[in-house]
Amino acid sequence: MNILAVESSCDETAVAIVKDGRYVLTDCIASQVELHRVYGGVVPEIASRKHIEAIYALADQALENANLSRKDIDAIAVTYAPGLIGAVLVGVNFAKAAALAMNKPLIPVHHIRGHIAANYLAYPELKPPFLCLMVSGGHTMIVDVQDYTKMEILGTTLDDAAGESFDKVARVLGMPYPGGAALDKATKLGDETKYVLPRSKPGQNPLDMSFSGLKTATLNLIHHADQVGEKLDVNSLCAAFSAAISDTLVPRVVQAMKQTGRNKLTVAGGVAANSRIRADVLSAAKELGAEVYMPPLSLCGDNAAMIGSQAYYEFLAGNLADMSLNAYATKSILGEAL
Question: Is residue 331 domain-resident?
Answer without folding.
Answer: no
